[in-house]
Write a structure and sequence with these properties.
11 helices
Length: 381
Amino acid sequence: MVKLIAHHKWNIYHLAIKSALLIGVLKKEVYMQQPEGFLVKWQEDKVYHLTKALYGLKQAPIDGYLHQNSFIKCPYEHAIYMKRNHKGSNTKMLAEFKAAMSNEFEMTDNRLMSYFLGIEVKQQQEGIFISQKNYMKEILEKFKMNECNHVNTLVAIRMKFSRERDGHFVDSTLFKSLAGSLRYLTITRPDITYGVGLVSRYMETSKESNLLASKRILRYIKGTLNLGLFYAYDENAQLVCYSDSDEGGDQDERKNTIGYVFYLGSTAISWTSKKQGVVTLSSCETEYVAAASTVLDHPQEDSIVIFMDNKSAIQLAKNPLHHGRSKHIDTRFYFLKDHIKQKTIELKHCHTTEQVTDIFTKPLSGETFMRLRDMLGIKIF
């Protein structure tokens, strides 16, 4: 979304709401316990009787008001609303919205810096920079790592995880809280996606080694607080993709880790790192399945290019003579061949050194890690 905003040179505005719980009148009896830090002395056994509320209930006025005024809620992030204004400019639309709600809200439309759900947005002449610097500082402070020494890589290069590995179990609540906090940070920091996904596999069987690996990610974050994604104006908006996988990286199920990243211009817009849902028998099949998972419906004049570093997987997707050698691959992956025939996608080979998705599938040396991190479009704020 941010890349499209940068491509069209739109502005990002921020809505700040004060006294959010003092707006909507409740029609039913709603009670809540006194929150920590707000206990009434000598009345700790009592509860609050809510008379007004903003979020979470069908009586809440904000969602209804925005829908009535032609705003559409984002299906992926329910705190984001968009409005297409065909009759006037975005500036006029914002002015109307501010006027209509001026009695209820305090609005901030600072074009230089906005804060939304922990994401910091800086709009410059060259483009838009997004980061979560303050959120990163909060995480470090929360888990008492704000004074730690930093490291240059995310995961130790020879580190192997297994549920059967010796070691004491740790507090699962602490570990889940840490993993969840790190996962939210992947919104603006694709470089930590592999490490966060790796430790998240051990939510229910978290041991000391898993906790130490999570703290290593915090140590990496400590040294990279000023990094974020930069989306430049006036760039080519052609969609391209890189796809890759490791081979048998998971020690428990022998499944592979697949990764992909989509670009519009020179900066990543979408990425993933996850354990493959099926077991494959060779690196060729693994990368074929990984490529199939990247196919999406995005109309553009030219084919969507998917870069792979495995020539055998490319031949398997292109050449029908190879079908007999891959009958055991689930039929749901064969739609990749159909898209190639329809020329909606095009598979191209890239050298291993140019395969940026290695950063999503395996531990890397410091030099390689930082080179691929730069290729994602991650820059200093």
